[in-house]
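Dear colleague,

Thank you for sharing your sequence with our group. We've completed the structure prediction you requested, and as agreed, I am returning the results in plain text so they can be pasted directly into your records. Please verify that the sequence below matches your submission; if there's any discrepancy, let me know and we will rerun it promptly.
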Amino acid sequence: MSQNNELTAIDRFTIFEQLNMHQRCIDKGWGREQVDLYNRLYWPEAKFHVYDLRTSTFEGFEGMKQMFDYAHSVFPMDKWFHSLGAFEISGSGDRAEAHWRWFVYWKAEHVGIVSTGTYDDIFERRDGVWKCLERTSKSDPNWPVDLFQPFLDQADITFKAS
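Please find the predicted structure tokens below.
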């Protein structure tokens, strides 16, 4: 496919599915099988930048595994569910960008939103397959991220690797 070709509806839908699968993989629970499903959404050299209470960059499958394990063992992910908000997908040829909002809701004990923010993604198509090459997550600056401090304070005790 030529680099100047606009994305087709199929390209956009495939990327949209990837955004949804990202959220679904997070909600499927913790463990090696779930990490492997999550890693399949990314190219081997992918980078994930996180800007919330911490500023971190995770690289490659091992970095993605570390991020996944941290989130699932430090935070009560079994009590939350993730949702996709408004999104925009653009690009041409074998490269695309997706800008989208994420929401985390309580599914147990509480009602309402746990947190919200944005993702800015770069997708690349190789041999007909779209995967994320780079993702940047930013917590909503209006959200009180200090609500997560008690979980971070316990991270040395609760963290476990899959």
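Summary note from our side: Residues 3 and 103 are 33 Å apart (CA to CA).

Kind regards,
the structure core
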